[in-house]
Every structure is written in C-alpha cells, then in structure tokens.
Amino acid sequence: MVTFFLLLVKSLMIAINPEASLPPSAGDVNRGKFFLYSLLIILIGGGLWLSRQPNVQAVVMEWNEHSLWENVKRLVGGDDIKLAGEDEGRINILVLGQGGAKHDGPYLTDTIMVASLKPDTKQVALISLPRDLVIPIPGFGLKKINSANAYGETRGLEQGAVLAGDAIGAVLGIPIHYYARLSFSGFAQVIDDLGGVPITIEQGFSDPEYPTDTNGLTTVSFESGWQILNGQRALQYVRSRHGTNGEGSDFARARRQQQVILALKEKLLSPATYLNPSLALRLYRNLSNSIETNFGASEATRLVQLAREVDLDNIITRVFDTSPGGLLQETIGPDGAYLLIPNVPDYSELQKAVRNIFDVSEVTREAAQLVVENGTSSAGLAETVSTSLTIQGFKVLRYGNASHQNFPRTILYDYTGGAKPITRQLLESLFLIKAVELEPATNESDIEFRLILGTDRLPANE
C-alpha cells in the first residue's frame, strides 16, 4: 500500500507539466501548481520549512521578480542541494505499508517495495519484495523480511525503517537512501479523498481469510471487470493473501498493489485533483498523520525537479516470485512456517536483477526476436517463462517444446552476431548462463535468440 505514497508524491510533481492537463486558464494552472508545491513541501518537510521562516518575508516581497518554481526553491532552500545517490546515478527509496497502532503486529509490513529513480535517463523502477522472503536482519539473524521494520522499532521510534533499509539494501546490493511508511488507514483515506480508484480486475476471486480490525477473519470477494474501488475495498484488494482463482499468493498481491499504484497515478494527474485547493488540503491533512519519511523540505524540492521529467507512463515494474524462471523458491522453516528463499545459496540473482532493472527499456528498444522452448517434462514451463519475459520487455516470437525434454541445463543461442548486446546480457544475467553464438537455420531466419529451458529452472520439489 505505501507504494502509493511514492507515486502520489511523484504524481504531484509531474502534474506541474501543463501538457498533462486540459487547457485551463493560466491563473488556474498557477493556483494548481502552488497548491501542489505547498502540499508536497509541507507534507515531507513541514518542520524544516518552518525553521526557515525568517526568509519568507523576503521571498514574498520579491515574489513577482521570480518564477513560481524559483520562489518555491527560495522558500525551502532547494537551489543547490543534491539527493543522496544522485551523483552515483540512482536514487533508491524504500516504501513500506504497515498496519499501524490499531492492527495486530502494527509494524509488520504487508507491502515492501523499492522505488529507484535514474535521473540521467529519467526512468523509474518499482521492485516488489514478498513478505515471506528470508533475509539476514542485522542484530536479529535470519528472519522474514516483513519483520525488519518491527525489530527496528524496538530500538526506538522510526528506527524500523532505518533497520529495514539497511537489511534490504544489503540483500539487494544497493544503498537505500530514503524511506517512506504509510499506514493502512492513511491509504484508505487517501483513496476516499480522491473519490475512489478505477480498477479493471482481470479475474474475480474470493478470500475467506481476510483479517479484520478486531483480529478476526472475514470473506471478501471481487468480481472481474472495470469498477471503482473506495478506500476500504482498495485496501482489501491490495492486502488479500488467500484469494481463489490464482490470487492466493504474495506475488499476486504485489501485482495488484502495482496495479493500484498506476491507477492512482492517473487519478492524481487529472485536473479535477490538482486544480482543487480543498482536495489538496484534505490530502495534506490525512497524509501528514499517516506518513513517516526522512525526506527534508529542500530534498523534496530537488525530488520535484528531477521527477518533473520522468515518464510515469513507462514505469518499470518487477515482482520477485517463485514462477519458473523466477528467482525464489518455497520452503518450510523449522517451526513449520512458510518461507521463501533464493534459488541459489546467496542473493546474487536478486542483486543482478536489481542492478539490471533499467536495462529493460533498452531490451524493448532492441526488440530482439526471442523463441522460448521447454526442454523439460514440466508442462507449461515455456509459456510461464514467456509471460514473465514479456512483462519484462522481451519480445517473445513464440514458445513451445524443445526437440527433447531432458535438457539438464538452460541454454541460450545468439543468432545476431552480437548485434543485440543488451538483450543478450540481460538474458545471461537472468538465467545465469553464457550465450552460445550460432548461425541461424535458413528456415528460421526470423529468430535472433533461442532460449531452451532445462531442469535447472524447475523448483527444487519437481
């Protein structure tokens, strides 16, 4: 859920682009911009902004001598500041969704996502991590990733996000520069403030084990098709873990969370939202009570500057899961608990995927023709992997069975003569293999890469 906060902030930033709106009057646009800037700055760094009040009078006196954006920067001191990670070319933000004080396990995180901003290419990537993934938490040993925030809170207020950032950053091989935490109630209230969120549910499902606020269970159901979800229903949609019809996993839930994020982005970008001062004030009031973040006011201003250029219609998304070709596998802990662990003895595959996440757009541009073949006796493997690769930007020409079904290891054939290096590198990284260069057969001149899946891509229990 809390991933919504990041997109809320980024959507508010992007909304300052007049091309994204209908053609309102110049006065309406300026007023809309003013309220968006004010909301963002007050929300993230109200205390810091107030500490600079001696500058406010001078700014107001010279208001007409500067543009609106320049005046905002003068108010919060964001002229020359750079964000952590900016010089290195990547800013990483941990976003967490937690139950809050009224819920059992108030600091356990149902949503764990890393959002990365790459300023030089103006790209944003969202990486969802399942709550049952086992990771080393400094000072506490191997634990489920969703408990890192709770363990940190035992060290002091807001230390949960700090500890979670340290642990998750180490596992993914990247520094976590900033964090944001949003409570369930805050998420639902924001949805209601916006009048609900439009969602197309691909397949309906029921969950007979949805948790209630009184630590009980109830049944929630969703029909397929287009609908507008209010705050409570949207919260149920993104939190459900025991749904029927293939929706009973953390991976399905992570995809639903990303779906709601993108739908909220559209709602936030609409003129009905960003040209409505009273709505902006309601959003501020509700969010300020339910969001915790380490962004300061001047840092928020810099984030606005960077994100104004980001294309939010082309956000890169990735969910780590246990599907064939995925990077995780299921296991049972000593106490009988359901756990997820990497396919390999360490977290190197996850780190490679995170490191290469921005190469997806390059893969899309190369548009290499890929054929996926099942070299095992596991039915449907080629289709499952093809679907996963397509989501990641690969162009799968077709999929089917290999010449035989006893390939012990996955093989990648490159027929391009090195003409599509990004596609090759990313496939090699994803499947931990080295491509073999071959000349294409005369009757298969349309194929540029052939991926034959071996038994090494099957879960350990198959």
Alpha plus pi helix count = 16
Helix-strand makeup class: alpha/beta
Beta-strand residue fraction: 15-25%
Within the largest sheet, what's the order of strands?
11-6-1-2-3-12
Mean pLDDT comes to: 79
CATH fold-level name of the largest domain: Aminopeptidase
Class of the largest domain in CATH?
Answer: Alpha Beta
In the CATH hierarchy, what is the architecture of the largest domain at level 2?
A: 3-Layer(aba) Sandwich
> What is Rg?
23 Å
Q: Give the N-to-C terminal Cα separation.
A: 34 Å
Largest sheet: 6 strands, mixed
Which stretches of 5+ consecutive residues score pLDDT under 50? 1-53
Domains counted in the coordinates: how many? 2
> CATH H-level name of the largest domain... which superfamily?
LCP protein
Helix proportion: 25-40%
Number of DSSP-assigned strands: 19
Shape: globular
Domain LytR/CpsA/Psr regulator C-terminal: 370-456
Domain Cell envelope-related transcriptional attenuator: 109-268
Pfam families: LytR_C (PF13399), LytR_cpsA_psr (PF03816)
Organism: Candidatus Veblenbacteria bacterium RIFOXYC1_FULL_42_9
